Amino acid sequence: DQQVKQNSPSLSVQEGRISILNCDYTNSMFDYFLWYKKYPAEGPTFLISISSIKDKNEDGRFTVFLNKSAKHLSLHIVPSQPGDSAVYFCAADEAFNAGNNRKLIWGLGTSLAVNP
Amino acid sequence: NAGVTQTPKFRILKIGQSMTLQCTQDMNHNYMYWYRQDPGMGLKLIYYSVGAGITDKGEVPNGYNVSRSTTEDFPLRLELAAPSQTSVYFCASSYSQGLWGGELFFGEGSRLTVL
Predict the structure, then answer these.
(1) Is there a contact between A100 and B109 if contact means CB atoms under 8 Å apart?
(2) Mean pLDDT along residues A71-99
């Protein structure tokens, strides 16, 4: 059962417009959420994160919003650039064995295409 | 800093063969991980290590073994390769797994095909 869901496998936007990538989760014990970006033939790279005590975190063109009651988070990219074209993974942090050995639960990713 | 380095980048194995995927990091990170990513799927944790000499199973450990004799190196061993192990393998490391988790640094991946 997928605990972290990215329901849109792909998204296409025009350069300069806003990209909104969505992520839903089912486990209310998740307390930290991360977005990773992946280019073809490369490993994922960390983009932005948010803890459950916040509802928004901003870093330049990237903003992540967290709605705990809806168990939903979204990544906004404004303005979108062709170099943003990549697969974006949402990941949630879950306590593992009730200790400090936490592990990330990953969504399946959304492929973003930003068209010039 | 090179970050996380994985070798080989590509490998084709025959069923029943064995091989080791190498992973080394130069960031002095305590935590290291092996993930696999199947086509159209998210990342699944195979094994992880919280420090030299300590390893533990992740979500999908069957068919794999790991060791962590040094802080820098975390090799993944495939014994008796099976077609189900065809995947892209990512090694990652992090400084800590503190209260707020920790940013993972990934290698470029190793694409393994078992025929």
Answers:
(1) no
(2) 87
Q: Which residues of A touch B58 (CB under 8 A)?
A: 103
What is chain B's mean pLDDT, rounded?
A: 91
Give the up-direction half-sphere exposure of residue A2: CA atoms within 13 A in the CB hemisphere.
15
- For residue A74, pLDDT over 90 is answered with yes
CA distances to B71, B90, B97 from A30, in Å: 29, 23, 14
The tens digit of pLDDT for each residue in B90-111 reads 999 988 665 445 688 999 999 9
- Flag if B100 and A32 touch (Cβ within 8 Å): yes
Locate the chain A residue with the closest alpha carbon to B89. Answer: A43
Contact list, B50 vs chain A (CB under 8 Å): 101
pLDDT of residue A103 exceeding 80, the answer is no
Q: B108 CB near a chain A CB, below 8 Å?
A: yes
Contact between A46 and B42 using a beta-carbon 8 Å cutoff: no
Mean pLDDT of A2-24: 95
The class that CATH gives domain B4-114 is: mainly beta
**A22 to each of A31, A73, A103, B50, how far by Cα in Å?**
17, 6, 21, 31
Q: Which residue has the tokens 């069923």?
A: B15
Tell me the domains of chain A and their CATH numbers: 4-115 (2.60.40.10)
